[in-house]
């Protein structure tokens, strides 16, 4: 006698459908804004808005008196990018994260966007902190505060990663976004180095020496006439 083929239990398809529905329900549209993300992004937005306004108004931020470490960092060539205060670019980054936290309700798009933007922001923040510590050799409390906020946002993105994304290769996604962040920060470094815009790069030794001499002599104007 031949062996009887095992018949599929009628309960098995039902179990598969139930599991599928559960997986789908986990990825349903978010009903509320992402509170941790929006709170941190709002804090970063307020900080960078304040720094941008003080820069445009020509006023030093609180606890950033002339000659202090904070002032040295703010007045360095890294204090602006493409003619705009560096804080303004941070403002745009935090504004994007705030928009994601409030308006982007699709869980997959929400998480991928928050991860990508916060990773780019964190990479730029790490770059600026490294420059201030090892090149300028001065620390800025506002920069450190922004770094802490952006690092916290990225930590939130790591913690909130959906675990059941269909056909999703997290390793490849993380690698691609990391490469994107490195390319962006690398382009900014070329800008600050004077490769892209010579006027944004370091000054020549003669000009730096002349500026130091004028500053020591309290010269208000240097010129010549015939």
> Can you identify the CATH superfamily of the domain at 32-161?
VKOR domain
| Biggest sheet architecture | 2 strands, antiparallel
The whole-number mean of residue pLDDT values reads 83
| Count of individual beta strands | 2
Which residue ranges are poorly predicted, with pLDDT under 50 across at least 5 consecutive positions? Answer: 15-26, 204-214, 220-226
List its traits.
single chain; de novo design (two linked rop proteins); 65% helix; 8 helices; disordered C terminus; mainly alpha; 226 residues; two-stranded antiparallel sheet
Question: Would you kindly provide a brief summary of this structure?
Answer:
Helix content is about 65%, strand content about 0%. The protein contains 8 helices and 2 strands, in the order H-H-H-E-E-H-H-H-H-H. The protein is mainly α and about 230 residues long.
